[in-house]
Design brief:
Elements: E1 8-11, E2 16-19, E3 26-33, E4 36-43, H1 53-68, E5 71-74, H2 77-85
Parallel strand pairs: 4-5
Antiparallel strand pairs: 1-2, 2-3, 3-4
Length: 97
């Protein structure tokens, strides 16, 4: 299934964003502290790396953070690099960039 055909789900109970189905699910985990969200880890199964799934997860998570008024701490290197490459999300970073 193509990345474009997949939609990102926000699983608030598990504190993660999900793309795809088990056992090939890509996830972006986070921890919430009030209006602060710490993006901890992005995982994409090996067979789907390089296909844009990680970027799709991060974009959806950042758009949700914007919609909910969250400030972001990009503890995950992939999220930090995504924000560096997509400056429209820099204002979400806690304390600015």
């Amino acid at each position: 299934m193509s990345t474009q055909a997949l939609s990102v789900r926000h699983n608030e109970q598990a504190q993660r964003f999900e793309l795809g189905q088990e056992p090939q699910m890509a996830v972006l985990t986070y921890t919430r502290k009030g209006d602060l969200v710490i993006f901890n880890h992005t995982y994409v199964p090996d067979e789907f790396r390089g296909l844009g799934r990680g970027a799709k997860l991060v974009r959806a998570a950042l758009e949700e953070a914007r919609r909910l008024g969250w400030k972001v701490v990009p503890s995950c290197w992939f999220v930090a690099e995504y924000i560096d490459r997509n400056p429209e999300f820099r204002e979400l970073v806690a304390g600015g960039v």
